[in-house]
Fold each of these.
Amino acid sequence: MTLMVGPISADDHLAFVQDQRIVSFLQSPEWARVKTEWRSESLGWRDGRQLVGAGLVLHRPVPRLERYTLAYLPEGPVIDWTGDLDAWLGPLATYLRANGAFAIRLGPPVRTHVWTATQVKEGVADPAVERLTDLPSQTDPLGALVTSRLRDGGWLPQSPEDGFGAGHPQFNFELPLAGKTEDDLLRGMNQLWRRNLKKAAKAGVEVAVGNDLKAFHELYVETAARDQFTPRPLKYFETMFAALGPGRIRLYLAHHDGSLVSAAIMVRVGAQAWYSYGASSTAKREVRGSNACQWAMIQDALAAGCDVYSLRGITPTLDAADSHVGLIQFKVGTGGQAVRYVGEWDLPLRPLVYRAFDLYMRQREHRRKR
């Protein structure tokens, strides 16, 4: 198979994505309209005249060297990762280097390890276990093969020890939905989750799909102050909803006695749904609005025929003293599974420029942490 890589229209890109059962929303052409600070293009792989792969490329310029860019394909590209990677990634590198990229960064949507909710729960309870990777896991041979081929091809791993970096998380928590009913999913949850859902129902928490992004953002800013992270501006969410549209993205609002107690955003593409952003009030935590919001999104994902509901990123730490463990325990309560992906990898195309960019990013991160 001889593959050629070149630009494709947004319409052709969208049509290709819509034919895939599982593909990240970060690889849909609409996502380019959200990342307005990046230049973007849709690329296609062709075998003869047939479109057999696609990728959304976000171009980040180098400070003071704007003619060079980092070509970023988040959670992509959408290609056959079981095939000959040189045949797929070689033409990509050739095209991007010829068009000014100093490096490629991509995140193969390929798993390497899976841990059950029971394993994670037992790991948190065991003082001898500090990380997910300390536990036995179900391994995916494709993940090992892709990792080996990338390394042999000169690609450099970028995922840090805590699983979070400048890109997207390597460790995620996912709830399999295929072949299950609502009763099956409820039985799979732990007792605390089922009890909290009953508390929310008894307290009269009502969850509805809405469009009040301003109310969501006010609650999100409150959450950011409490949990000590930097919130995105309201404009970002307005752009996100305008770009993805009502068929792909929904806002869930949980009210108790007229007060907004929790809110969350779900994105769906094909047979996968993602919990994307969430917010909760400091007051009325006892009515369990966050659990009610999650359950509403899970129910809707199941009704839409999704195979997977992703609760997105987790850190691999299981140390009970670590502040991140509370988030893991909340997600584990759904009864899903922790999943490690291959992670993000860089291929330097212009080594001198890449080293300068890497030094700049390291210095910026050092200043941020001071």
Amino acid sequence: MAWIYLLLAGAFEICFAIGLKYTEGFTRLWPSVLTALAAAISLWLLTQALRVIPVGTAYAIWTGIGAVGVATLGIVLFAESASPLRLACIALIVAGVIGLKLATPGG
């Protein structure tokens, strides 16, 4: 269950980071409220995962999920660069996340 919490925490981390773009500096009420809610949910889910998963592993995976998700959505939603080098770097983050999962005892 801890790994499910961690995956969901990563998903809400993506929502939080992308939501920041839509808050326009926290000048728009509802995007700001939803972004803050996503951040709170993400942190709560991360704390639940930390009951079982080592903090170094959980934090690295949480931030990795967020980084890959936000970079991918940046390409899709905001026409950010999808250069081969950028995609290769995103793939390296994915490889690191998978490696940490496989290297964690009981993972």
Amino acid sequence: MSAPSFAAPLPLGAPRRAWLTDLPVLLVAAFWGASYLAAKGITTTHTVVAVLVLRFAVVLPVLVAAGWTRLRALTAAQWRGAGTLGLILGGIFLLETYGVVHTSATNAGLIISLTMIFTPLAEAAVTGVRPTRAFLTAAALSVTGVVLLTQGGGFTAPSTGDLLMLLAALARTVHVLAMSRIKAVRTADSLSLTTVQLGSAVAVFAVLAAFPGTGASPWATALDFGPREWAGLLFLSVFCTLFAFFVQMWAVRRTSPSRVSLLLGTEPLWAAAAGIALAGDRPGALGLAGAALVLAGTAWGRRAADGADRPGRAREADRPGRAREADR
């Protein structure tokens, strides 16, 4: 679906309707930005796996109930593809959660945003299409920003948490590429695909929780939780997972995927704001400069990648039947 032309006159009230769609998506980005701080507040090194089991066990029954009919319609190939993606997703959540325990919420949110740079670079490596000079410059800017961001009072080795978040950004890139290259999942219903992925991830967490040495059990962790911890867990489950998924499904049918992606791309801003305002993160002069470079680089890189891909999308739209398919 192509973006509307700004040269064309808009119907009276259209800007208001656009904002009514944009605000819930922006709220999702804010929730995601705050999720690093929430996860850090309720998780320790010994409860990472248990918290992940509890977080997704809360929302999985709702997703199964909402999409039971469509789940039953999935083919065996779609189940296998979605299950594979779920295993990757489980690795992403493990890296992110262990990472945020060992670094600041500000660093976590900004480092993970490098996925927006890594994904087009990985796609270029796979397809053999060289990225534009503007995109490569934006990528270098972002990487420089991360280097500065992870240096508090001076140049030191990045923390374990910083490195884990960097690995999580790379794993997110693998997840995106796998989703685009596993043919079976391309035609899968998005609700069913998400449900199977989360179910596979929860299965991974449950298996890990059964092994000694992986920390506290989900049951023991749940019993130890007080009102503050349960509030944080429900925030992660209900608002950062369930609400976020349904808002994305709702918004992408009322506006363009590019607009939704752009609004969700503000997540690092909210992560930095939550870390500084609520957790007392103090990145210092170098850290603030690095954060600015990360935000500028990822925003520039997103625009550069989108601009380079636009001619290809235009050619796709010219193919017979393509326009009707895009409007479903």
Amino acid sequence: MCRIYRPWQTLKRQHEGIGIGGTGLVGRYIVEELLAAGYTVIIGGRHAPLPRFFSRPVEFAPLSLDPAHDHIEAFDDAYFFVHAALHHLPGKYRGGEGNDPEAFKRFNLDGSVRLFEAAKRAGTRRCIFISSRAAYGEHAPGTVLKEGMPDKPETLYGQVKLDAERSLAHLAAPGFATASLRLTGVYGDLRPNKWDRLIEDYLNGRALPSRVGTEVHGKDVGKAVRVMLEAETGRISGETFNVSDLTLDTWDILEHIRWERDCLNRLPLPADKSQLTPMDTTKIRALGWVPGGMPLFEQTIHALATDNGGV
């Protein structure tokens, strides 16, 4: 459930770091982006990743979200800490607490705060937390979600993310820069893939609902993390940043599959995108973050449609 990074010779400085969540569906993209950028990555958690799980060799170190454990020794000489882990029921984020909300809160809030505090005590210089748009909660259709607006999460998942953000920001101090990234839905081309079931259902002629949401590619999430690690401290510390890119519905996704796979099954009707609450990303774009937009989406959906190892 965790990852450790030791980037080398970045911006003419030697950095060492630690992180958590590297083998998850989102964390994998972050790890791969850092590997591609020349970072040496150590995956930590309860179990080591399988051989060749990542594109390049990685190391492993034990780490957990259990607040009963003090992992301060894991932060020895760590320059930064990236937290992308979540204790939850398989396949669920909202509602991921199942029938045990207390355990969900204990691991994801108490355990996270304990790791933040351990990192600070150990002398770690930067801490980046992967949060969620769920921290905003429900707003009127068409509302543009901007950092600093009132938060009113209606799920335990959203509340825990918000409380962890606030706890981390409270710890920000000279020598310990903190930042939280509020992610929208994350898509990409790694397997298993969030759209595998959707594509399979379409190709098999099953009825599909019209659904719409905001999305960002996992590669762009990795780039956002790099921005947080490499930006000037004063521009990120104690701050929260939205990370989002496209508005997509099931028609947008499956229309490409239809042509790529020469499938004549009926597509779901286009959804009403005006009912969404899009996320404003001006703040992180000002730091140089530029997402892949439609070209990256089209490249990704082509890869998913033509992957013989997929659906």
